[in-house]
Fold:
Amino acid sequence: MKKNQGFTLVELVIVIVILGILAVTAAPRFLNLGADARAGTLDAVRGSLESAGAMVFSKAILQGVENAGTATVTNPEVDVVFGFPAATAAAMTAVLELDDDQWTVTAPPATPVGTVAITPEGVLYTATVTDACQVLYAVATDDNRPVITVQAEGC
Structure:
């Protein structure tokens, strides 16, 4: 007499279904896709700041104010410091066209003068880097470009 060994097709399908259910319920606990999305959005804001800063600097050169400590360029009207956007909420909103419902631009306390923090709506600025979910923009100096820092450890 022949002895059959192995699993039937029904048993294999049941095991695959059970593994699928476990994967769907357990995966979100191990994969924090929301934090990755917020960190990626902060990187996009940094890239937008760099691009917008380059365009504003080009306009400043055309208008002859690239070496001025403070000035204003037109189309759109943006306050600049050494040709780059000033570290103010108005300048950041003008160059980035940020939606007020989704982003907050603030001059946080306990940071050097000329620094703004850009945070997703509902997230507060924090000086603790491990808890931070923000982009910091420090104004340009006469011999340096602006410093743009992404702090996404707390997202």
User: Anything to note?
Assistant: The chain has a mean pLDDT of 86.
